[in-house]
Amino acid sequence: MADLVTIDQVREHLDLDEGADVTLLTGLIAAASRTIELQTGRTLADGPTTFGDDKPVAAMAALLLIRTWYDNPEAVSANSAVVELPLAVSWLLWPLKRLTA
Fold first, then answer.
1. Which of 5, 36, 52, 79 is the most exposed place for a label (fewest CB within 10 A)?
2. Cα torsion angle, 83, 86, 61, 91, sign
3. Contacts by 21-30 with C-beta closer than 8 Å and gap 24+?
4. Please, are residues 67 and 14 in contact by the beta-carbon 8 Å criterion?
5. Of 66, 84, 59, whose CA–CA distance to 26 is shortest?
């Protein structure tokens, strides 16, 4: 499976140095890419449901999702409400959803 963002983009977005945990970042990239595929009904593979011109928007959603997971690795935080996706990610992904009859 292809990914929406590179490890270098994630390092820059999170302001991390080269010594950051590559395994963790790679896992977060794969998880965010797959989550966005599932949320939108689109795929990163070649085909009729690819992101095409919408890929930069999907990539921004991936970066925001990765930031959320990186900063808040716990599933439940005592200081915040539990939500399915961060609001900014939901707003970015909504127009990209493939709606089927």
1. 79
2. positive
3. 24/70, 25/66, 28/66, 28/69, 28/70, 29/3, 29/4, 29/5, 29/62, 29/66, 30/1, 30/3
4. yes
5. 66
Confirm if 68 and 28 have CB atoms less than 8 A apart.
no
pLDDT of residue 100: 61
Nearest to 35 by CA among 72, 69, 81, 80: 69
Give residue 45's pLDDT. Answer: 85
Q: What are phi and psi of 50, to 5 degrees?
A: -75, 170
This prediction has a pTM of 0.80
Mean pLDDT of 53-81: 82
What is the predicted pLDDT for the residue at 19?
A: 83
